[in-house]
Design brief:
363 residues; mainly beta; four-stranded antiparallel beta sheet; Methylamine Dehydrogenase, Chain H; five-stranded antiparallel beta sheet; 1 helix; 3% helix
């Protein structure tokens, strides 16, 4: 049931879009699945509990709403897996769950005392990695390893305080975890620690990203708009780069590499900008910026083909021209925002490809 007050016309049109016993998944197409409400993005978010679906190839038009009542708790993470044709969600109430996007049913849900923040999943869908949360600084802060098929706890790994964002690399071999001012790298085969990279990100680990070869990482700064450039294979911090001009004393919450790895986009959510850097040189050099229609939590990600940039706002940008080309709208036709979304491709009603909620290099 929608929590937002809808017009009669909107209700009638929405009724045709809601899933029912006779409605099947799209047979073909590229869609963006945006979970609502966002547990961190307050400004412009919806109060509807579920998933908004947008047609990427047709102007990001809103096409349907999938109710998921438990999402009312507020989403902290939204990780996808093609093998299980599912998304794994984390909520503000420390809940983790698996939602099958083909059947549109919750497969399992579990609640944990410490977590859960932005989780990630192995390529085969057999393990889900759940950070215990930026809000948790106990001696056992770190990572929960769950059975991806049942949600049962396999093990708990102590890493460091405020374990926050986790990413499984696109080749599936490595797990990255950000704690307070450290990035830790694990082997997904056995969760063996490979490397720790301390003293990055100023006062805290916020979002980060890396290239497809996992050579260079870009870690958001906690006290200024900018990022640290890190050699992921040696652990060396190569450079600290700030947005152009006088240093901006805002945290940076959002960093994404375009799929072709030519540009790095970072978020200044308070200043309502996305700053763009030329990532073909080292360190990356300022190149351009785009203005956002609102502030908020901060985020940056891209469509798999690299054509569109998405953030924590309703604004949709053409990556090549840097022009705003569309706006995310809710069922009432009002602008809506979120930062937990995944690109999903369907063919003959089956999931054939998924993106990632982080803007990762794919060159």
């Amino acid at each position: 049931m929608l929590r937002r007050t809808l017009s009669i016309a909107s209700l009638l049109s929405l009724a045709l879009l809601l899933p029912g016993p006779t409605r099947s998944q799209p047979k073909d197409g590229r869609y963006l699945y945006m979970s609502q409400p966002d547990g961190a993005q307050k400004e412009g978010r919806a109060e509807d509990a579920g998933i908004y679906v947008y047609d990427i190839d047709h102007g990001h038009k809103f096409v349907r709403f999938i109710p998921v009542p438990i999402f009312e708790e507020g989403l902290r993470g939204f990780a996808g897996n093609v093998a299980k044709h599912a998304v794994y969600y984390s909520s503000t109430n420390h809940r983790v769950g698996m939602f099958d996007v083909e059947t549109e049913k919750v497969v399992w849900e579990k609640t944990f005392d410490a977590g859960a923040d932005r989780s990630s999943v192995t390529l085969d869908g057999k393990k889900v990695y759940v950070p215990t949360g930026w809000w948790y600084s106990g001696d056992d802060s770190g990572l929960l390893v769950l059975n991806g098929e049942t949600g049962e706890l396999i093990k708990r790994i102590t890493v460091g305080p405020q374990a926050h964002n986790s990413i499984v690399s696109l080749d599936g071999k490595r797990l990255y975890l950000g704690t307070r001012t450290m990035v830790s790298i694990f082997d997904t085969a056995d969760e063996k620690l490979i490397r720790e990279i301390p003293n990055v990100g100023e006062r805290g680990i916020f979002p980060y990203t890396f290239d497809s070869q996992q050579k260079i990482g870009y870690v958001c700064l906690g006290d200024h708009i900018g990022f640290d450039v890190v050699n992921l294979q040696t652990g060396e911090v190569l450079d600290r780069v700030f947005a152009p001009g006088e240093k901006i004393p805002n945290r940076t919450h959002g960093a994404g590499l375009t799929p072709d790895e030519t540009e790095l986009w970072i978020s200044d959510q308070k200043g309502q900008h996305l700053f763009i850097f030329d990532a073909t040189q080292m360190p990356p050099a300022p190149k351009a910026h785009v203005e956002l229609s609102q502030g908020g939590h901060g985020w940056v990600a891209f469509s798999l083909d690299g054509k569109y940039a998405w953030s924590h706002t309703p604004d949709i940008f053409d990556v090549k021209t840097k022009k705003k080309v569309a706006t995310f709208l809710d069922p009432n036709g009002e602008p809506v925002s979120g930062s937990k979304y995944i690109e999903i491709h369907f063919k003959n009603g089956k999931v054939v490809e998924m993106g990632n909620e982080f803007g990762l290099g794919r060159k």
